[in-house]
Known about the structure:
Layout: E1 7-11, H1 28-47, E2 52-55, H2 62-65, E3 69-73, H3 75-89, E4 94-100, H4 105-121, E5 125-127, E6 131-132, H5 137-150, E7 156-159, H6 164-174, E8 181-185, H7 189-196, E9 202-204, H8 208-223, E10 231-234, E11 238-239, H9 244-256, E12 270-275, H10 281-296, E13 300-306, H11 315-324, E14 328-331
Parallel strand pairs: 1-13, 2-3, 2-14, 3-10, 4-5, 4-6, 4-7, 7-8, 8-9, 12-13, 12-14
Antiparallel strand pairs: 9-11
Helix pairs in contact: 1-11, 3-4, 5-6, 7-9, 8-10, 9-10
Amino acid sequence: MSPHGFKIFRVKAKVHSAYFYAPAFASGNAFQESRLSFFPLIKKLKDNGIPVITPHFTSHDQAASGLTAVVGADGALYARIAANAMGDRLGGKGTVAVTVANFNHTEKLVAKSFEEEMKTKYPNIKVLDAQEEGFDQASAISKANAILKANPDLSGAFSTTGAGPTTWSTAAADNKKKNLVIISMDYTRPNLDLLKAGKVYGLVAQPLYDEFYQAVALVGQAMDGKPLQYKNLLPAPIIFQKDVEKYYALNDRAEAGIAANPTATRKGRRIAMVQFSKNHPVHRLMQLGFREGCATLSYNAELLLTDSNNVYDMIPLVEQALAEKVDGLVLYLL
């Protein structure tokens, strides 16, 4: 128990890279398999009157998963916004690469929506077929280098993954492409540093903090018996250089950890959050949203986190939440 009333549990496992990690599978089908492993547990939670909200991943079917609600960014919308930002910056002409971490449901949707918007609004911009970066940073950079060498006229790159800023800015430097327009994901500190330095043009501000804060609010509504909308989509604007300070401040709070949060109530209802890869900078921003949501709305926050990047290591923590009879659960279900 921390001085601020937060309980933290950790599962010891192999340490992973701080800024680039791969879940314990690489294919889109494996993402689906991981979901199925959790569905029976979600049913048990539901049968015990415990609402379960999943933030960030909004493609889960309610009937199949048993989830109470999902909350996260509208991937198709932010893809269109990114396409317009890219198209305007390029002046309506050029060649753009699209890369994904892998072809999971969300990233396929984002890549497709980006391409469709570009074709509709900027017909003179050629969009290359999407390619996988994969989950190894060195390999991802190598693939970006290969794309640049095969397409010397490349003028822009859109990556749907949070490692994309490093991947493409490094490849651009390797190939002396100073004017490559790069738009990618997430306001982690390394990505903000690249944006501030002018090495990246824009970052999609997936609502990493807000979606977990709102997940707490949705759990609260469910606990109070209020009707919920199943799918709750949040905006994800593009961050430009002028916007970085707001997002640096969020990173400051996330990196400071629990000590930076308002004091949580020690009595009353408990909401648990289950997540793997607890030290990843994206996940720390999510944890900040959860903690501050609980503190502001007067719930006890219970963080059930793993050190590992293995999704399946979350299963015993979900079982622990069920055994402890928490009042609600925020589950990072891919």
